Amino acid sequence: MKIRVGGLIQGKLLQALGAQPVAMSGSEVYEALQRGVIDACEFSTPEMDLAMKLNEVTKFWLTPGFHQTSTINGIIINKKNWDELPDDLKAIVENASKACYVSRFASSTLNSAKATNEILAMGVKINRLSNEDLLIIEREKNKLMETLAAENPEYAAVLKSQIEFDKTIAPYRNQLEPWGFGKAWGSYPDLK
């Protein structure tokens, strides 16, 4: 199965699971699905999937989105220019960025909820991965992360930080299940 996916790690994980990852720009996805160049795709949030009209060329929706557990928004500023800003302006940029992120997260969540309802009303069927399938994916994910961490010390440092964060919030997040957002990791890669 040929699947369009964004990201090196997601592609390697799909490959480990037996799929053939395909890299292509978002502008090519609709036609590639329509013509059978790819069998499936990962694109974005339901809000964006609906805007791209992917429901016109797909019949099924695989959930949960194990390949992308969060979306990152950010602002990129030239370090030299940032360093030259006075502290009061840095604080304004930081606060405005935080406010923008919270606003975008809220609107995206609502818009994706509405888009999900529209997509389902148009006849797209949900196929939900079983707990057994999710455990297989998690095992392969951990193997991949262990390999990448062994090859790249910077990756290992970031991953260790993420694991510590997840271990800190997991007890609280688990108290929210099944109603809260996200799922705590069931196991962790063995980092040397």
TrEMBL record:
* Record key words, sorted: Signal
List the GO biological process terms: transmembrane transport
Key word Phosphoprotein present = no
Q: Which InterPro entries match?
A: DctP_fam (IPR018389), TRAP_DctP_sf (IPR038404)
| Name of the protein in its database record | Lactate-binding periplasmic protein
Origin organism of this chain? bioreactor metagenome
